[in-house]
Structures are given as C-alpha cells and as structure tokens.
Amino acid sequence: MEVKVLNISGKETGAKVQLSDAIFGIEPNDHAIYLDVKQFLANQRQGTHKAKQRNEIAGSTRKLYKQKGTGGARAGSVKSPLFNGGGRIFGPQPRDYSFKLNKKLKSLARKSALSYKAKDNSIVVLEDFSFDSIKTKNYVKLVADLKVTDVKTLLVLGAANENVYLSSRNLKKSKVITADQLNTYDVLNAGTLLLTTGAVKTLEEALAK
Fold first, then answer.
1. Rounded to whole angstroms, how far apart are CA atoms 42 and 29?
2. Calpha distance 51→41 (Å, rounded)
3. Which of 49, 104, 109, 121 would bridge 36 by S-S if both were Cys, CB 3.0 to 4.6 A apart?
4. pLDDT(100) > 90
5. Dihedral sign of CA atoms 130, 40, 148, 135 in order
C-alpha cells in the first residue's frame, strides 16, 4: 500500500512510503484484537477494592436478645450481614486483574488493528518533525492543517520528542506516543492514525519479526 508523505502543514512533500502488506494489509483477526484489548484494560485496573466481612467489623459480640420467645429470628451478633452496618457477604477483595498473552498473539492483534486503519484510509504519514518550543498552539495548528481537529488522533513518533509530547498533552482528542509504545487499544480508539516516516520504519522492523 503506497501512501503520500505530508508535512506538518498538510501539504504533500512529493515523497511516498510503501506500507508493508505483511503489517498493514493482513486479514484482521478479531479474536486476537479482543484478547489484546481485554488484557490492556485489565492491566489498567488497580484492583484495590475492598469491603469488610463480618470478622473485620468493629462492634460488640454480645447476643442481641434471647434465643427464643421473641417471635423473630434468632440473632447472635450485631456484625451479621443481615443487619445494617454488618459485614458484607462475598464482598470485593483486593486482587490482580492482569494476565499474560503470547508475544505472537499480541503482534497479530497490533497488525490486525493497523490493517483495519489502512482499509478505512485512516492512516496519515508525516515526515519526521519537531517543535522549537513547547506550545499547545503549535499542535493545534498541526491538527487543523491536517483537517483532523474534530477527530481523535494518535500520533506515533519514531523516537521520543518532549516538545511534541508536551505540546499535545492538554488536548483531549490528541495522544502522542513512540512506535515502541504502540498498542492495539490506542490504535482502535483513535479515529485517525498519524505516523511519522521514522515510526513506519520502526513498526515494520518490530512487527516483521
């Protein structure tokens, strides 16, 4: 798949990039995508939820009233889950939600997500660039010139660039990462994928293995 390379003003540079069919043109595997996104979201969970059971509740252990003759059910402790303020039955406990996936499956999921973007013509390739200073208006101008202001964008850089990253950080619909940080969730969550030529090269080297 051949794509024209644009500059940050949205104009063609005259150069073209050949996107590898082995990465951007495969038959997407939906189940691999599902597992990878599920793992990504699960790994974000803190798992620190906690409810007290009856043995953890502070309260008296005396018997509330006599066993028989009241006409009501017997009760032995104010900590019973049946009473207001008592312990909770089978309440949430701290746990680790993360799980592991094979590297080949995660690679297949990323290639599937990239292939979906390529099929939808939602990939824009930019020449490598940098900003002279950290200014949000520089990034706002970039997305405006590329005509993706109202779309969620994911900009993938070949290498870390602090000026570009910090210039985009205040914008809700923009996210900037490096090629080695690319994951299936971010690709699918973005409306338009912005790749620098350096990022394309890095992705093809990493995912072609």
1. 20
2. 23
3. 109
4. yes
5. negative
CA–CA dist 184, 34 (Å, integer): 9
Q: Where are the alpha helices (DSSP H) in 48-178?
A: 103-119, 136-145, 162-168
Please tell me the distance from the alpha carbon of residue 4 to that of residue 11, in angstroms, as a whole number.
10
Written out in words, the top-level CATH class of the domain with range 2-45+98-207 is alpha beta
**Domain range summary for the chain, segments of one domain joined by +:** 2-45+98-207, 47-96
Measured distance CA(21)–CA(27) in Å, rounded: 10
- State the residue for tokens 């906690």: 50
Lowest-confidence region among 27-31, 178-182, 205-209: 205-209
- Tell me how crowded residue 98 is: count the other CB atoms within 10 A of its CB: 11
Question: In what order do the strands lie in the sheet containing 12-18?
Answer: 12-18, 2-6, 123-126, 192-196, 153-157, 174-178
The mean pLDDT value of the chain amounts to: 93
User: 101: pLDDT confidence band, cut at 50, 70 and 90?
Assistant: very high
CA distances from 66 to 54, 72, 74, 83 (A): 21, 10, 8, 17
* CA proximity to 207, closest of 110, 116, 120: 110
